Amino acid sequence: MQSVKFLKPYYVKKDDRFVRVILAYQYFSIIMDEKVYHFIPLESREIVLDRFNREIVNKHDQFVFQKGATYVKFPLIELMGFDSFEEQLGDITDEHFDEKQRISHVEVDLVISELVHQNVDRLIDQALLEGDKEKFSMLTSQYYSR
Fold first, then answer.
1. How many Cβ atoms sit within 10 Å of the Cβ of residue 86?
2. Distance between CA atoms of residues 107 and 119, nearest Å
3. What does the pLDDT read at residue 66?
4. Considering the entire predicted model, what is its pTM?
């Protein structure tokens, strides 16, 4: 089993668009095969989160860990699957997200729903202009019968 043992930022930097969790030597450790590996900043040194949707931006950056003479390298997207990664990262970054900047899933669903509705309306208008009764019937019965 793979898990994050310890995740502590060297510092956290926030700008208008991103929250950057800067990591330093041994501030990040993982457990693999019951052995503890410590982060070493040979390649990537930061986790970058979009402040508007809280998504990690640099999912494919490589992070290197060391245990003695053994080195292992993981892309961030794999580390995201480790036990307690998201929990520990959330503990670090939660205070850096403004409530006003969060886009809720409900708001996104509403926008998507409205765009779908507008698109179907355009397709219906197009069917009317082309005189395509079959397409018009299909679109109006399928969409407006919901």
1. 13
2. 18
3. 92
4. 0.62
Q: Could you give the CA distance from residue 114 to residue 120 in angstroms, rounded to a whole number?
A: 10
Distance from the Cα of residue 111 to its chain's centroid: 19
What is d(CA 135, CA 128) in angstroms, rounded to the nearest whole number?
A: 9
Is 90 in the same domain as 111? no
Mark which of 83, 101, 119 sits at the end of a domain.
101
Same domain membership, residue 116 and residue 93:
no
Q: Residue 73 CA to chain centroid, in angstroms?
A: 21
Residue 118 and residue 67 share a domain: no
Q: Which residue's structure tokens are 């930061």?
A: 46
pLDDT lower than 50: segments of the chain: 101
Convert the pLDDT of each residue in 112-129 to its tens digit.
Answer: 888 888 898 899 999 999
CA-to-CA distance for 49 and 52, rounded, in angstroms? 9
Contact yes or no for 27/51 (Cβ under 8 A): no
Q: Residue 73 is part of which domain span?
A: 3-101
For residues 35 and 59, state if they share a domain.
yes
C-alpha distances in Å from residue 141, one per residue of 90, 121, 135: 46, 12, 10
